[in-house]
Amino acid sequence: MIYIVIPVFNRKEYTKECLESLRAQTNQGFSVVIVDDGSTDGTEAMLRDEFPEVVVLKGDGGLFWTAGVNMGIRYALEQGAELIMTMNNDVVVDSDMIAQMYRWHREKPQALLGALELDASNKKPIFGGERLNWKLNTIEHLLHVLPDAERKGLHPVTHLPGRGLLIPRVVFDRIGLLDQKRFPHYIADYDYTHTARRAGFELFVNYDAKILTYPEESGERQIRSSKTFKNYYKHLFDIKGGGNLRDFTRFTLKNCPPPYVPYHLANGYARRLFGYFLK
Questions:
Q1: Does residue 66 contact residue 178 with C-beta atoms inside 8 Å?
Q2: d(Cα 95, Cα 87) in Å, to the nearest integer?
Q3: CA pair distance 113, 110, nearest whole angstrom
Q4: pTM higher than 0.70, yes or no?
């Protein structure tokens, strides 16, 4: 059975839509663990009254994404989970997603599997995996290079996001939990999957397993929506800022091969300092 771990803080409408899409899965071989980090919008009552089958763990209001996910993972491992999936609450799951994850897990039982991401507003693919080249400091986006006829099955990548990420227990046994100390919110999923890859685990995007997301609802998109000095500061230094310089530095020093660190840092700083105004 897959244990699906979903950290939440408010936004109960998204949580409800996510859980309803899980109820509609063709394969019901999963259990849902919600980590509610102090929601004040009625999330707790909604979960209790409408989704009694869901396990709810309570945070103290200061977990953020990584610590919340780790709390759910610890619980799942204590229950004997062999498969864990991390998921965000602003995800709507295609009805066959869990079935397709099981299907390809049987082919690659120790691999980490991500999902093909579609925009919930128009159903167009927006994320299909990336391959990072440390030497050139470039990222190849698979959606830009894969012909439509090849957008199926598994495709190898260098890292994966945590929304709809299937992780076998053996990965946790070997490398532990996510690094909540260095990466409390953003980049923790990319860091974890890079770490898993260095430890010998394969990473794939499963193009047969689809999720729908709301990209405009991300914290970074909202920060970019209004180009002000305050938002620029948040972009670079806020815990939810996509250009957070501290997180980027820690990620690079931990994951980048040493010969490429200086160039990767210089290039990355420039992109974060100036790219904010170009998007």
A1: yes
A2: 15
A3: 9
A4: yes
CB 94 within 8 A of CB 212: yes
pLDDT at 218: 59
What's the pLDDT score for residue 49? 97
| Alpha carbon distance 144, 10 (integer Å) | 35
| Chain centre distance of CA 70 | 13
Which three-class secondary structure state does DSSP give residue 170?
Answer: helix
Q: For residue 42, what is the DSSP state?
A: S
Q: Are 93 and 21 in contact (CB under 8 A)?
A: yes
- Pair 92, 214: CB distance under 8 Å: no
Backbone phi, then psi, for 204, in 5-degree steps? -140, 150
Q: Is 91 helix (H, G, I), strand (E, B) or coil?
A: strand
Q: Which residues contact 54 (CB under 8 A, 6 or more apart)?
A: 19, 32, 33, 34, 47
Q: Is the dihedral of CA 178, 37, 101, 221 positive or negative?
A: negative
Q: Count Cβ atoms below 10 Å from residue 172 Cβ, excluding itself.
A: 19
Residue 11 host element (H or E): none
- pLDDT mean values, one per 10 residues, the chain (279 residues): 96 96 98 96 96 95 93 98 97 97 98 97 95 92 96 98 97 98 94 98 98 78 69 85 92 96 93 79
Q: Which residues, listed in sequence order, are joined to residue 47 by a DSSP beta bridge?
A: none
* Structural domains of the chain, ranges and CATH numbers in brackets: 2-216 (3.90.550.60), 221-275 (no CATH)
211-to-45, 96, 196, 216, 220 alpha-carbon distances in Å: 26, 10, 23, 15, 20
